[in-house]
C-alpha cells in the first residue's frame, strides 16, 4: 500500500516515477541483501552464542558505516562534498535499516523503508544532487537534520533497553 501511494503521488512526473521504481527494484533489493542480510547477519553470527546488547549495537554501527561508505562511489557524478554528506547521512540511515532488521527479523521492513526514503529523495533532488546549499544554516540542516533523525529513529526502533523484542537475535539464537 505504501508503494502504491508513493507511486501515484509522483505520477505527474513520469521520469521521476520511473527513476524511483528503478531504484526500488535494483539497488534497494541488492543493498538490503548485502548490508543487512549478509554483512549484519555475518557480524552477529560471528559472536557465537555470546550475543549481547553492545555487540549487536556494534554490528549495527559497522554495517551502517559500511553502507554509508559504499555510497562514496557517487563521487564520480556528485563531487566530493556532496558525496561526503551522503556518506554521513546514509551511514545513519544504514543504522536505522539495521535496527529495523534486528527488531523485526525480516528484510522486508528495511526494504520498504529504504524504498520510501529513496523515493522522497529522488522526488526532491532527482537521482544526482549537483550542488549543496551555500549558507551555513541550510548546510547544517542538510547534514545534521537527516543524520539525527535517522539515529533517533534507529534507537527508538531498536529499543535497546528491551532486547527481548529483537526478532533477528531470536532467529539466530534458535539456529545454534
From TrEMBL:
The chain crosses the membrane at residues 56-74, 80-102, 107-125, 137-158. The keyword Membrane applies. It comes from the Bacteria. This is CAAX prenyl protease 2/Lysostaphin resistance protein A-like domain-containing protein. Coiled coil: none annotated. It comes from Companilactobacillus nuruki. Keywords: Membrane, Transmembrane, Transmembrane helix. PANTHER family: CAAX AMINO TERMINAL PROTEASE FAMILY PROTEIN, SLR1288 PROTEIN. Residues 25-119 form the CAAX prenyl protease 2/Lysostaphin resistance protein A-like domain. GO terms for biological process: CAAX-box protein maturation. Belongs to the UPF0177 family. The keyword Transmembrane applies. One of its GO terms (molecular function) is endopeptidase activity. Pfam families: Rce1-like (PF02517).
Amino acid at each position: 500500500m505504501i508503494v502504491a501511494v508513493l507511486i501515484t503521488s509522483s505520477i505527474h512526473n513520469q521520469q521521476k516515477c520511473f527513476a524511483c521504481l528503478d531504484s526500488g527494484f535494483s539497488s534497494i533489493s541488492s543493498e538490503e541483501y548485502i548490508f543487512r542480510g549478509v554483512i549484519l547477519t555475518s557480524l552477529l553470527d560471528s559472536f557465537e552464542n555470546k550475543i549481547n546488547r553492545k555487540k549487536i549495537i556494534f554490528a549495527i554501527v559497522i554495517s551502517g558505516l559500511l553502507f554509508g561508505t559504499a555510497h562514496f562511489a557517487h563521487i564520480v557524478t556528485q563531487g566530493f562534498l556532496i558525496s561526503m554528506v551522503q556518506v554521513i547521512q546514509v551511514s545513519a540511515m544504514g543504522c536505522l535499516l539495521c535496527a529495523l532488521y534486528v527488531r523485526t527479523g525480516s528484510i522486508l521492513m528495511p526494504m520498504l523503508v529504504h524504498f520510501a526514503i529513496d523515493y522522497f529523495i529522488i522526488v526532491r533532488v532527482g537521482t544526482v544532487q549537483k550542488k549543496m546549499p551555500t549558507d551555513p544554516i541550510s548546510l547544517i540542516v542538510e547534514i545534521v537534520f537527516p543524520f539525527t533523525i535517522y539515529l533517533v529513529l534507529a534507537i527508538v526502533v531498536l529499543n535497546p533497553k528491551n532486547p527481548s523484542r529483537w526478532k533477528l537475535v531470536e532467529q539466530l539464537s534458535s539456529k545454534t
